[in-house]
Amino acid sequence: MSTLLLDGEWQLSSPQHTHISIPCQIPGDIHSALLKAEKIPHPYLGCNETDVQWVGESDWRLTRTLYLDNDTLSAQAIDLSLSFIDTTADIRINGETVLQCSNMFRQYRYDIRRFLKAGENHIEIVLFRNDLEAAKRADKLLFPVPWAVGNNQVPHMNTLRKTQCHAGWDWGICLLVSGIYQSISLVPVYQTRLQHIRTTQQWHDDGSCVLTVTTHYDVLAPSTPQILQVEFNQQSYDIELSAENIGTHQHQQRIHIAQPQRWWPAGYGEQYLYPLKVQLNNHSLFKKIGLRNLELETLKDDIGTSMTFKVNDVSIMAKGANWIPLDALPAEHTDNRYRQLLEDAVAANMNMIRVWGGGMYEHDIFYELCDELGLLVWQDLMFACALYPSTPDFLLDVEAEVRDQVRRLGDHPSLALWCGDNEVIGAIGWYPESKANREKYVVNYDRLNRTLAAVVEQEDPTHRFWASSPCNGELDFGDAWHDDNCGDMHFWDVWHSGKSFDAYHNVKPRFCSEFGFQSWPSLPTVETYADAEDWNVTSPTFEQHQKNGRGNSIITEMFTRYFRFPNSFENMLYLSQVQQALAIKTASEYWRAYKAHCRGILFWQLNDCWPVSSWSSIEYTGRWKQLHYHAKRFFAPQLATFIKDEQALTLHLVSDSRYEIEMEGRIMQISWEGKVINQWSVNTTLAADQTLEAWQLAHTEYDEADKYSFFHVVLNTSEETIENSYYPALFKHTKLHQSQIKWQVGSDEQGLFVSLDCDTPALFVHLEYNGSGRFDDSSFTLLPSSITGKTRHVRYKGSASENELAQGLTVYHLRDTY
Ligand code: BMA
After folding, report:
1. Cα end-to-end span (Å), the chain
2. pTM for the whole structure
3. How far is CA 130 from the centre of its chain?
């Protein structure tokens, strides 16, 4: 008998709401079931968030029956296999409590055979109110442990092992969801139980690799030898396992691969994956193995300590963004949406994703896609922006959680790092209690952090454990927000501290794992949650969809520093995205130009979990913000960027390629009327992984605050054309012309495109289609064809027809906003 899935329709009721008795899909969540049954309005629309808070303030009961025959019951054990159960829950079978859960991140596997009977069995799962449980736990603590005040709207979430942003975040709706987000099953076990498999790789000087597959299994009843079958690539091994002794055992199979095809991060090579299958009795486990050598190099140098991920001995320039949960409603965590977002990350030339510690250890599909797409994963353990208890019970619970997760995820070739938490070292300095008694809270922190380190080191010696993000290094409890000499850095001086974009040039991080700037969503996304009467940045709906207290003021105030004030709601939305793109571009290009020093740039944040104003580069609806189009350019393997220092304006060229690259083209100085005033040719070769200064213009040779012209570079490599611009004066001071843009939708054998031309240069030319899909480029400087010799073609990637695209397209540009 094989696994029995308990997925599908369950019955949902609540002791506090006796009129509710509705179906609920498992995997799924309670809010989504209530929404489907029309018991609540959609929480993402208007100000509905407030009206649905009662759902998280109730207990919920899920029931179903299960018919079992005698044959199934003849197994030695019947394991209940359950994970992603959120959070405080009792599981009852035929009236008896068989399991009590209180950790959403555990992978429960528990023999319940003795509670089952032949015929009909009654299964009941009670999901208790998490807000009350959190408060009860906080009451029992011997000293107060500050929770994420300011982010969470429900107190004491730090006592619960649950996705911390469920209680709200500075980009997150507060829904306090509950439910079961992964398949539940019953697994009959005969004689032996296949527990889990782990692999390690040893690399030899001749380039060959030995893969060791360790199979962990239990013998439940003594029996004749059992056959363990290990299949790797096309080789198969049948191993006779002695099953005489009851207990837990392991078997190691060494497999020699003479000429391994290696796995590389995106942009550095292929993502070759070898299939591995292990079978014992009626159970099998599958993994896809990527053969690669990965290390995090932290070497002391003249400046401090480096932070470089090396894959197959090649230093990687990590480029990417931070990941938050895909949707505030867990039932919406669908495979297609994971694929779409991660493909969009790679399409913007990213090669690393950081799974942020206030969310969750992601579903398997996330890591499988990262393996397939070549996205390295910086994996935080799930602690963020609060202090956490270090009581024996809490530590035991966390130890089991981390063990489960490391076993589940440790073999993914994409996994690059285990990081203890997000900003918890820093949080010691935020709260009055911990500020007043720092030693006590540092010790408290370190007890938890040492526990995490010990489990990771025991379960996965092949990956580094990094205490916290940001962190200056081993047992360093200093301010990693401002120290750019060692470790990773969260640089928030611009957004949270109100410095200008120039401040990005005041630091050279070794690895910047967070920095961000907010924007508002585009009009088509705003339309999905706000009625036209609320299309105003200070309307109640718009303010409800902005969770960072000063957010809208910061965006608006920044407009006044750089731009002329926009003349309409649509243009405010558009300009906010120009501004965001400019901020992150400024930082990323500068840090890339200092690559030997800086080996990682992960901006905050890739995605949104509901439609909201935020730091994301992709909107909840999947629409690329202008930032994401810019990221595609500023993270491209080759980059040309102008940087101004005290003496000169310099063109820096950067290549992350493993091979030599030739670049050839020109730099132009162009007036706003569209005349080329000056030009310089560039013809150079970049060695693998090199940066160089290709051109320089002393300040004495041009007007540093020139309002009448700008610089533009166009370079060709054998594969791509790269472009970039430099504007000497602030945009609000320039004599930008009101250029006329002519555009037209056309099609050829590759699909639809938009051709564009203009009479004078147009800035931040952005294509917004109100249907689905995206473009291969947008938010660029458009030069007249009289300069470039051709009209610009932008490809549409989506399913619209030519007519739909032409009707639904808006073309924005900067001069049009005032
Ligand atoms: C960071 C993150 C998040 C937060 C973001 C924006 O430091 O770790 O907690 O959402 O800042 O404030």
Report:
1. 71
2. 0.98
3. 26
